[in-house]
Design a protein that fits this description.
- This protein is mostly helical and 469 residues long.
- It has 2 domains: 120 residues, Up-down Bundle (Transcription Elongation Factor S-II, Chain A), CATH 1.20.930.60; 298 residues, Rossmann fold, CATH 3.40.50.
- It contains 18 helices and 5 strands.
- Helix 7 runs parallel beside helix 11 and helix 8 runs antiparallel to helix 11.
- It is globular, with a radius of gyration of 23 Å.
């Protein structure tokens, strides 16, 4: 990856000094409400990351028992990994300088080290002073480096079991969605172009698919297949009940754009593995199989274990193995099973993968998704130039989740009413995109006047910026 200077953002980044937000947010008008609201960034460095490292240590301890097979070298290496993780946790809690990423054959070491040099010159290269986004990306690249330094554990994904165990709890929703898609398939003629009301029906399904991908909830979709007016009315009422939770909603503009496409390519910049990846497949399947708007989908994973739950190429492949295993979903009651519907849908997806209708992004672009910078780098002459060239050919780029939102906006202290197009910088207008995100970090843009201040002042909404609601 080419190394370009950090973008010049108009505001400073979110960092871990935000316990005293009054000094750092001079444009917040309702300052009194900020006194008891330390940022999620601060809570991340003092609470969340230490827990993640502790859990990682526990995972390696367990792996010694389950995966070492008594191999002395493997056990010794695992113990060395544990020691390094323990030291990392100590260094973090004592605000020590970040160590450089070794030239270990992994991705982006020179990019991370160049950014560390910049931060060191600015006096911000210790754990409590680094920008939050850089620090979090660096942390997972350092995890990768720690495992990469071993012979036996270099490709070990310490989060894989956690991702898989979480997905095991989603059996009822998975089978429900499979049945919904099967029922939809049985009514395909009603969705065919030229059939009376076909596009109105597609609009309804599309809107609910977007909600599914946003909230990770399949319940409301159960009303879709009948297309009965009463069920549609109930579905719309349910949507209205949730409307107050959506602070920025461009669903109308999104549908207008999508219905103007013809056999387009979709790009999913992925977030979480497991059930969320499953819903991404469902959404892509709907658009490719049942609409004239799209004919293929490209999925962009993270090439290394990332932010605990992010999709890796292994997760992309293993979901098919899980879905084909009738014993995988441990909490699934027999009455909820729809094995025929699930098998039919998964077979279609596997055929799409073989045909290239569904495919992973080129490996040459993977490094960018685990680089420390934001997506302002998707510009000519910058680190994300190759990714930008790939996305230029997309009919719609769907950025999933909070991290992608943070990277799109640079994770800086934008005023909350900053226009979305301003906050995403050079990406705006380059290719059509949508960001599906529930708030799990402090950066929020595109809100109407006074919306953020009203939420900050409401005791019932304390933590709204990071609660995912």
């Amino acid at each position: 990856m080419a190394l370009s200077p950090s973008p010049q953002y108009p505001y400073p980044p979110w960092d871990f000094t935000e316990k005293e937000r009054l000094d750092s947010l001079p444009y917040v008008t309702n300052k009194l409400t900020q006194l008891s609201l330390p940022s999620f960034a601060y809570n991340t460095i003092v609470k969340r990351w230490p827990v993640i490292i502790t859990n990682l240590i526990d995972t390696v301890h367990q792996a010694i028992d389950t995966e070492s097979n008594g191999d002395a070298d493997k056990i010794s290496e695992a113990k060395a990994v544990i020691s390094r993780l323990a030291k990392l946790k100590y260094d973090m809690s004592h605000d020590r300088p970040l160590e450089r990423i070794p030239n270990d054959g992994g991705l982006n070491s020179e990019v991370y080290n160049a950014r560390l040099d910049e931060l060191d010159e600015a006096g911000k290269s210790t754990w409590m002073k680094i920008p939050w986004l850089f620090g979090e990306c660096y942390l997972y690249r350092l995890f990768d480096s720690i495992f990469r330094a071993t012979r036996h554990w270099s490709t070990f994904d310490p989060f894989f079991k956690q991702k898989e165990d979480t997905f095991r709890e989603s059996g009822a929703a998975v089978h429900q969605l499979a049945k919904i898609m099967d029922d939809l398939d049985g009514r395909r003629d009603e969705l065919s172009p030229g059939t009376e009301g076909w596009e109105d029906k597609l609009a309804i399904v599309f809107a609910e698919m977007v909600q599914m991908c946003l909230w990770g909830n399949a319940t409301d979709l159960s009303m879709l297949p009948s297309m009965d007016p009463a069920d549609v009315a109930l579905l719309q009422a349910v949507g209205e009940d949730k409307a107050h939770l959506i602070l920025r909603n461009d669903a109308g503009a999104l549908w207008t754009h999508v219905r103007g496409l013809k056999d387009a390519r979709l790009d999913f910049v992925l977030d979480n593995a497991g059930f969320e990846l499953f819903t991404d497949f469902v959404f892509a399947d709907f658009l490719v199989t049942y609409t004239p708007y799209a004919s293929r989908a490209v999925f962009h994973p993270k090439p290394i274990p990332w932010f605990v739950s992010d999709v890796t190429p292994r997760d992309f492949s293993s979901i098919f193995v899980a879905l084909e295993d009738p014993t995988f979903f441990t909490t699934l009651e027999k009455s909820s099973m729809q094995p025929d519907s699930l098998s039919k849908m998964v077979a279609r997806w596997q055929a799409y993968v073989k045909q290239g209708v569904f495919k992973l992004s080129p490996e040459s672009t993977h490094a960018f998704w685990v680089a420390p910078g934001g997506y302002w780098e998707i510009a000519p002459g910058r680190d994300g130039e190759e990714v930008g060239k790939l996305l230029d050919g997309s009919g719609l780029v769907i950025f999933k989740g909070d991290l992608n939102y943070r990277k799109l906006t640079g994770d800086i202290k934008w005023p909350n009413d900053t226009p979305w197009e301003t906050a995403i910088g050079p990406v705006a207008g380059r290719f059509p995109l949508v960001s599906l995100r529930t708030c799990k970090a402090d950066v929020v843009v595109g809100l109407g006047p006074g919306v953020a201040e009203k939420l900050d002042a409401d005791p019932k909404e304390k933590g709204w910026r990071a609660g995912g609601k």
